[in-house]
Design brief:
disordered N terminus; binds calcium ion; 5-stranded antiparallel sheet; mainly beta; 1 helix; Neuraminidase
Length: 387
């Protein structure tokens, strides 16, 4: 098992024990009424998780302009292509001899530039340090490799790792607080480090990249100008709403609260999501709430019926599952449930369970805005209407 202590060791071991017998992979929620049928509450949608591929520890997903190939990153270091329902046996990129493996390290994120001409991967090297690396991409081949940025890492956990391009064409990069527990160096609130942040850069506008001039901390003494948002512990997965541009960030909790932060698409950046003064909507270690702290739109308790790590998904903008339109999907790595909530102007509604994916590691969205779920056990699942 490549990832034997992922995110939170004790919780994972508990989960491993629970999952050790009678693994069925995925279970869709039972629903007595068809979607939207008489008496069906809003969001009471029957969803099927259809397995479309099996890979080695899949953790991240991307599509590329101009083709229907699904690209999935394996934590063990290979980027794989799924074409016409078949996994290409030849990896697109193979970093398996260069990545540190297991736990929260390895190949963690993948994104293509909006025009499809460049590939970006987020990964940790054999010393545990983070690289965001770029390749030119054409004809299914990656070439001209170069590091866009690197970050020394103080501990082996809390790497973040998500990569995604916003509607503004810039690359957003998630960094965890560097690890250990409780953010011992206070990196989350320290604007002098990339740790505990989401960065925003133009990877092609300079050497090795360009900082957009409208980034929120450009020109502030002592602040890293790449920072877009801060106060994050381990923003393992984030996504942009394809319609509104809202940024949804799943921040894995420390002791008590898992949380999801939502940044409006109209934001100019600079939000402080509170860590390590806040955990969810609560003080952490008696910390005072920073004046600018933004509370999450969604939180749930850690170690509650097996929960351990929030896995942030997407606002559903596809058409295959009509009752799901406009709802935000997320899950929990250990508990395995996948839930959806109504998105309201302020906050979200009550969650509805859609199904279960054991060791849920990530979600993905294709060109048609249909959604996928990945399991660290290997399954790649497409979400479909159950009837
Ligand atoms: Ca927070």
């Amino acid at each position: 098992m490549a990832a034997n202590r992922w995110m939170k060791s004790a919780a994972w071991l508990l989960a491993a024990g629970l999952f050790a017998t009678g693994c069925v992979g995925v279970r869709s929620a039972e629903r007595p009424e068809p979607p939207g049928g008489p008496g069906a509450p809003p969001g009471d949608v029957a969803v099927r998780f259809t397995e479309i591929a099996r890979l080695e520890s899949p953790v991240a997903f991307a599509v590329r302009k101009g083709e229907d190939t699904l690209y999935v990153a394996e934590q063990t270091g290979r980027l794989r292509a799924i074409r016409d329902g078949k996994v290409d046996p030849v990896p697109v990129v193979d970093l398996s001899r260069e990545v540190s493996d297991g736990n929260e390290q390895g190949l963690l994120g993948v994104a293509f530039s909006p025009d499809g001409s460049r590939l970006y991967l987020d990964w940790t090297d054999l010393d545990g340090h983070t690289h965001v690396t770029e390749w030119s991409f054409a004809g299914g081949k990656a070439s001209a490799r170069r590091d866009v940025l690197t970050q020394r890492q103080p501990y082996p956990n809390h790497k973040g790792g998500q990569l995604a391009f916003g509607k503004d064409g810039y690359l957003y990069i998630a960094f965890g607080d560097g690890g250990s527990g409780g953010d011992p160096h206070g990196y989350g609130q320290d604007l002098g480090t990339w740790l505990g942040k989401i960065l925003r850069i133009d990877p092609r506008g300079g050497t090795p990249y360009r900082v957009p001039e409208d980034n929120p901390f450009v020109g502030r003494a002592g602040a890293k100008p790449e920072i877009w948002a801060y106060g994050l512990r381990n923003p393992w997965r984030f996504s942009f709403d394809a319609e509104t541009g809202d940024l949804w960030i799943g921040d894995v909790g420390q002791n008590a609260w898992e949380e999801v932060d939502r940044q409006p698409g109209t934001s100019k950046g600079g939000e402080n999501y509170g860590w390590n003064k806040r955990e969810g909507r609560h003080p952490f270690n008696g910390g005072d709430k920073p004046a600018d702290a933004v509370d999450p739109v969604l939180e749930y308790q850690l170690n509650d019926n097996g929960t351990c790590s929030v896995i942030s998904g997407y606002v559903y903008r596809g058409t295959a599952i009509p009752g799901l339109g406009g709802r935000y999907l997320y899950g929990d790595f250990c508990a395995g449930w996948v839930r959806s909530v109504e998105v309201r102007p302020q906050g979200v509604g009550e969650p509805t369970e859609l199904g279960r994916v054991e060791q849920l590691s990530s979600f993905g969205e294709d060109h048609r805005r249909e959604l996928y779920a990945l399991s660290l056990q290997g399954g790649v699942y497409r979400l479909e209407a159950a009837r």
